[in-house]
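Hey,

Quick one before I head out. I ran the complex with magnesium ion overnight. Inputs first:
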Amino acid sequence: MKIINVRARVFEWKGHTVPPQPHFCSNAMDLLWDKGDSMGTFRFHGWTVVEVETDDGLVGIGNVALAPRIAKAIIDQYLAPLVLGHDPFDYEYLWQRMYRSTHAWGRKGVAMAAISAIDIALWDLMGKATGRPVFKLLGGRTKEKIPCYASKLYRTDLGEMQAEAQRYLDQGFTAMKMRFGYGPKDGPEGMRKNLDSVAAVREVIGPDVDLMLECYMGWNLEYAKRMLPKLEKFEPRWLEEPVLADDIDGYAELNRLTSIPISGGEHEFTSHGFRQLLDKRAVSVIQYDTNRVGGITAAHKINALAEVYGVPVIPHAGQMHNYHLTMSTLASPMSEYFPVHEVEVGNELFYYIFEGDPTPENGFIDLDEHKPGLGLTLSQRYLDQFNIVE
Ligand SMILES: O=C(O)[C@H](O)[C@H](O)[C@@H](O)CO
Ligand SMILES: [Mg+2]
């Protein structure tokens, strides 16, 4: 089997968008004096879809959501020529080819995200060629179903957040993640508002439901050190990305500070990046996203590392490219799940582009044993709502 074509297209959402409100979610821009459009850093309103075609008529589908037009250019100009003419089953060789030949300027960020998209498509192809779901090629079923946590609860009116939390309980979720709206620049009042929002959600969900707290890199070390002891009484399952992804020592310090586990990794790349996090005991929960970290080939290696370090892997975002890895390793106890919603930050866009992502029932998703590959197809339903860049 040989790869005969690589097609990368950018799907840019032009349909209705719910504008996020101020203080909707803390983020890395919050520390600057001129925040401008501070929500811009986590608006993912475009997605690159990669289709890799083989000479026996199979098409593998990969995707990447970071800097989609740049990811497409990297795929078109650099990566496609490296895989054309090769057998997708030589995935490790092809991964090394892409990684090594872009090493001077790649390694992390959008170049690795672009490599991820091709790698995901190769695994989809291998599944389709063997007639097996991808998780069966990675180790198979390690759990009956995958427990999911509902991930939204952006900072809005506290009554609205409580009603939203109640909805997740009613749907059967036993874990959920909320976002902080305030950081260092918002002073004692912002600190109190942060604590009030956690108290409000905890009040509704009670002590036995897992509550995860997301900072999205909108704090700094000093602020995080002040907040963590105050948050202990709410017994969060974890506190996520308190500081910039590059501050690995900061993560390690915070992880030692209180009983609250610190999580991170959605902005880290390859097994090399994760070895550093693990060696320094910087995170107690690993949250790679397969469509950034280096694809299924890299994520599978990180799962093995995490297993020996005894650190759980709960990938960013859920979605099929992550679910197959979660299903096939004991190191991964749970998945994130973005409730389907009108397009807002853009996390939801996956459901508008693809068909086949499972919907949780009672807080669990399952993967179909009989669907070869990842189990995704391109959706025709919303095509007119996208500007598609060929
Ligand atoms: O962990 C997450 O779900 C991410 O940090 C979100 O994708 C991001 O959009 C912030 O809400
Ligand atoms: Mg996050």
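Residues 25, 42, 151, 179, 214, 216, 266, 316, 336, 345, 347 surround LD2SMVNI (ligand 1) (CB under 6 Å).

Talk tomorrow,
K.
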